[in-house]
């Protein structure tokens, strides 16, 4: 496995509210996660940090994440705990009221690949040099598309395209969408915040990932390209690429 993650403030925002991580253990189990914080007097980075830090702590408490069903239950419990931590923080720090975060993650083991998502950060698999989106955005416009009130093209330019219908710290109770990805032909896992996908098309991202660049070089080039196109938001990427003989 080759992996690399990075977060960048972009060209417009004064500070970075994103957090991102890739973790692994001795059992060749991996977890990737991107959290895109928002709102609450610059407290978005607090919410996303709570999410990533708690996920990290709980992952390293385990010798193994276990079978698929155990991993799903673990992830659902982690999300509930993160949500409670964010709500507790806002109670103790009234100035941070309104803060929250998205969370997209992937769990890769020798036996399964799971994705989890809350909000509008994206999770993709890479197969035959093509990116395929696994997660579904919890946005107002995505809801309107699903009911037929908007077309996909109209949704791209809708003035309220970033309005979230679900986020950690905004909904209580909270639930995470779980996606079971059972395809051994997958060659890569790619997670990102919307700071990347709002600046670059899937085709533009694919072109960089399919180049002769290393994993690290490709991720850094994507950050640079997103910034060159405006960098209107924080940009975060977690990328894991399988090599011959890997899981």
Q: Summed up, what is this model?
A:
The chain has 7 helices and 11 strands. It is of the alpha+beta class.
Instruction: Please write the string of helix (H) and strand (E) elements.
Output: EEEHHEEEEEHHEEHHHE
Range of helix content = 25-40%
Largest sheet: 6 strands, antiparallel
Counting DSSP H or I runs of 4 or more residues, the number of helices is: 7
What does the secondary structure layout of this molecule look like, with pairings?
Layout: E1 2-8, E2 18-24, E3 30-38, H1 44-61, H2 68-92, E4 100-101, E5 103-108, E6 113-118, E7 122-127, E8 130-133, H3 140-146, H4 152-156, E9 177-180, E10 188-192, H5 194-197, H6 202-209, H7 215-228, E11 235-241
Protein architecture, described:
- By secondary structure, the chain is an alpha+beta fold.
- It has helices spanning 44-61, 68-92, 140-146, 152-156, 194-197, 202-209, 215-228; strands at residues 2-8, 18-24, 30-38, 100-101, 103-108, 113-118, 122-127, 130-133, 177-180, 188-192, 235-241.
- Strands 2, 3, 4, 5, 6 and 9 form a six-stranded antiparallel sheet that branches. A five-stranded antiparallel sheet has the order 1-11-10-7-8.
- A hairpin with a 5-residue loop joins strand 2 (18-24) and strand 3.
- Helix 1 (44-61) packs antiparallel against helix 2.
- The mean pLDDT is 91.
């Amino acid at each position: 496995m080759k992996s690399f993650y990075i977060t960048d403030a972009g060209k417009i925002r004064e500070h970075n509210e994103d957090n991102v991580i890739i973790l692994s253990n001795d059992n060749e189990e991996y977890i990737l996660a991107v959290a895109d914080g928002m709102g609450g007097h610059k407290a978005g980075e607090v919410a996303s940090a709570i999410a990533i830090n708690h996920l990290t702590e709980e992952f390293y408490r385990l010798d193994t994440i276990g079978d698929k069903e155990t991993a799903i239950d673990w992830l659902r419990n982690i999300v509930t705990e993160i949500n409670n931590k964010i709500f507790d923080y806002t109670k103790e720090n009234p100035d941070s009221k309104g803060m929250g975060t998205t969370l997209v993650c992937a769990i890769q083991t020798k036996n399964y690949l799971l994705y989890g998502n809350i909000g509008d950060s994206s999770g993709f698999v890479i197969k035959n040099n093509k990116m395929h989106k696994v997660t579904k955005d919890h946005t107002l416009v995505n809801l309107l598309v699903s009911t037929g009130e908007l077309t996909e093209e109209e949704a791209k330019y809708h003035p309220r395209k970033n309005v979230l219908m679900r986020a950690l710290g905004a909904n209580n109770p909270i639930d995470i969408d779980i996606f079971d990805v059972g395809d051994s032909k997958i060659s890569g896992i790619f997670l990102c915040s919307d700071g990347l996908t709002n600046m670059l098309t899937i085709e533009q991202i694919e072109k960089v990932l399919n180049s002769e660049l290393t994993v690290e070089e490709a991720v850094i080039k994507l950050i640079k390209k997103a910034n060159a196109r405006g960098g209107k938001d924080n940009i975060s990427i977690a990328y894991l690429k399988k090599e011959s003989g890997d899981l």
